[in-house]
Input
Amino acid sequence: MPDAGERALTIVVAPDSFGGSLDSVGVAAAIAAGWSNARPHDAVIRKPMADGGEGTLAAVADALGTAAERRSTTTTDALGRPIDAEWLLLDGGRGAFVEMAAASGLARLAPAERTPANARLASTRGTGDLV
Output
């Protein structure tokens, strides 16, 4: 029960990802856990969001639950190196979801590799291979 004079609240936690560190699902879980520790009688609803970039796949997978099956395929990063990239198989094969950042995103490159010279060499072929 809440303390005398306090009422239980319903809180919606709807964050985007923290680029390069946590996807929106992880951010929502951390915020929800902190809130629940401080106010255990409140209802916390997690609704991870995404802006279409890094972390969108995680938010879509969370929203779709069992209708989305995570898959991994070997492809290439923006500099042509082999990597494993995640994508979602939807509704048992009736569709798919590919996040461009999974193969071609900046998070795939070390900070020292994010140079103008590499930008001229970079390719989104790995994303195309996922599609």
